[in-house]
Amino acid sequence: MDTQVLLSYLPRYLQAFCLTVQIGAIGILIAFFLGMVAAFVLHFQLPILSGIFRFYIELFRNTPLLVQLFFIYFGLPRIGIMIPAQACGALGLGLLGGSYMAESFRSGLDAVSIGQSEAALALGMTNRQLFGFVIFPEAFALSIPSIVANVIFLFKETSVFSAISLMDLMFTAKDLIGLYYDTTEALFLLVIFYVIMILPVSLIGHLIEKKTHDRIFGA
Amino acid sequence: MGFDVLLKGTNLLRLLTGLWVALRISLISVLISMALGVVLGCLMTLDKPFIRIVSKGYLELIRIMPQMVLLFLVYFGTTRALGINISAELSSIIVFSLWGTAEMADLVRGALRSIPRIQYESSYSLGMTLSQTYRYIIIPQIIRRMLPLSINLVTRMIKTTSLVMMIGIVEVLKVGQQIIEANRKSSPNAAFGVFATIFLLYFLACWPISLLSKSLEKKWDSSNG
């Protein structure tokens, strides 16, 4: 492995890294809110809306991100909906992630035992207080492990962005291999940068998981 | 809208053939990783430090890397580093088997760990032999816990195989692109129709499997109490 080559590649990788993290983070935020809305709609069984969200969840959970991105980026412009590549990446990731997050939140909401809400109602809490102070915090804590798993999964999925010509890590690696044939160096940096991206997420995720679990259920 | 292009010539058939290429890769990988995953998962429950460290390292290493990076490593990396030439299809099978084995092993380990000791002890005290214990007590419970999750893994693998397009395998997305390029003049809106169809095809491939997994989970969950 040639250190000189590694150093000369570094700036391009750093740039790609920032872009990947940026779009990934925006996508995950979208996923988070979308998932929460979808979970509430399904939990309270709002008419019509819950049908729409159920359809959305099934559709996006059962198709690959690559296909979704191709459809959004290459398909939609043909019927007049033009979205720039970066927004496309964030939107695609957000839609995919939303369907996964919805399932996480929903299973958390469903897992809160009925005794909790009965106890809260017996204490004279209103419905809003019941939801805000009892059900929601507990459901959130219950769904944290699967939210963490989803965030890691979504960060891994960002590797697909290169397919819609975003200059992400994958794109950079492929580009450099094609230009200079320094395959070993290009792939080495690719692996290193993905580890830098995903390892902290995984570690912090486990920490949050432990913290919330201790706080709510006692250490 | 561009759906008409699918009815021209053998275009729809070509798309389906492309889908089969991806599905075949995932099915082969599923079979390999189920078999290897069960073995590795059982090994991981043994309390041997060496096995534990190696298997844990393997699991974390594989699971932290995006599958696309693994594909690049095997397809481009081995050629460079070891000087051997692996075809795109073989390298994708290798990658998905490596990944699937890691996921499967974790499921098996989790299921084995979830059976409390007392189950073994009770069946021994009832006079069952080791093989009877496994045959009648342990394995049925493990299958109930594992089967829905492993079926879920199958859909994940089918979805992930869409990535093989990126290392040059002509599967459904690539065929779609070819159809769009070939009909650029006659139907400029083909991109919408073709990609919408591929979207639907993947959904139709994965959805029934997801439903099966969900219904099994529900059925066995309620019967367990």
User: By CATH's scheme, which homologous superfamily of chain B applies?
Assistant: MetI-like
Unreliable parts of chain B: none
What's the β-strand tally of chain B? 0
CATH architecture of chain A: Orthogonal Bundle
- What is the CATH homologous superfamily assignment of chain A? MetI-like
Largest interface: A-B, 38 and 40 residues
CATH topology of chain B: MetI-like fold
Say what the CATH topology of chain A is: MetI-like fold
Class per helix and strand makeup of chain B = mainly alpha
CATH architecture field of chain B: Orthogonal Bundle
Report the CATH C-level class of chain B. Mainly Alpha
Give the overall shape of chain B, derived from the CA principal axes.
Answer: elongated
Number of domains of chain B: 1
Radius of gyration of chain B: 22 Å
CATH C-level name of chain A:
Mainly Alpha
Architecture overview:
The complex is a heterodimer of chains A (219) and B (225). Chain A is mainly alpha-helical and 219 residues long. Chain A has one domain (3-217): MetI-like (MetI-like fold). In chain A, 82% of the residues lie in helices and 0% in strands. In chain A, helix 1 packs antiparallel against helix 7, helix 2 (49-61) packs across helix 4 and helix 7 runs antiparallel to helix 8 (183-217). Chain A is flat, with a radius of gyration of 21 Å. The N and C termini of chain A lie far apart (48 Å). Chain B is mainly α. Chain B has a single domain (4-224), classed as MetI-like (MetI-like fold, Orthogonal Bundle). Helix content of chain B is 80%, strand content 0%. Chain B has eight helices and no strands. Chain B has helices spanning 11-45, 49-64, 67-82, 88-113, 117-125, 130-160, 172-182, 190-224. Chain B is elongated and about 75 Å long.
